[in-house]
Amino acid sequence: MLPWSRGLRKEFLPLFDTGVDRELVLKPVAHLVVETLIGAGVNDMTLVVRPRDRSTVANYFSIDPTLLRRNGRHPERLRDTRALYDQLRRLRLRYAEQAHPRGFGHAALQAQPHVRNRSFLLHASDAILDEPRRGELPAAMADLLHRDELDGVLLVRPVADPRRYGVVEGRPTGKFGRWKRLTVRGIEEKPSAPKSPWAATAIYALRPSIFSALRAVQRRQPDADELELTWGIQEVLDRGGRMAALVLAPPAHWRSVGSPEGYYRALRATRAERLRRAT
Fold it and tell me: Are 85 and 173 in contact (CB under 8 A)?
């Protein structure tokens, strides 16, 4: 996404959403991700950021009394900003820093001091899960994690070219709620010969056992430029851990802004979907 992402993070690219008054509004991807996690029942959240980006992210996700006073005569301008502020007042928001971009697994490790020994949801911030009821699927993932005492629940979707993704090998085992369920046997990052069409989608419900698994991989590969989360998941499985996956299906969709074409499709899709819901 260069040159955009050189100065402004792609996580703050705007997508369409429905505002408080049912009109179209623009929200950064990161804002929509936070709302998804809140919709799933999260009230304690850690944002992992680069040090140079922390002030920008913190400024957005903080309450600005000056802005409220400056627009006091035009309250209609701030209806959606006030809705965000109401969410922030109920949310414990913390920050962890990743000094260098060393992979999704490494980013997750930076949040460990805040997560400690609790299970947690992990969500990448350069894509959104677009659902009619925001947070419904991540909440189901967390419910399945606890109900079946699993080490992790993944979200997968079928893709045309799995070689570009972390590929999940799994066995169908009925349904959980409305979603098809897989028992996860293995996961491989960007394989040349994929064993399935199931691509791991960057939302996870995990036990803290993932942290020791990631550190074990890190010790075995001290010179690796990145630490992939998929490596830690496979390590958990190799240790005898149990994981499941739910299959993403309409009316929910995954909208990524990781490439120019992906962002264009996400922008068009969110606009069309919000207009459809408004009618």
Answer: no
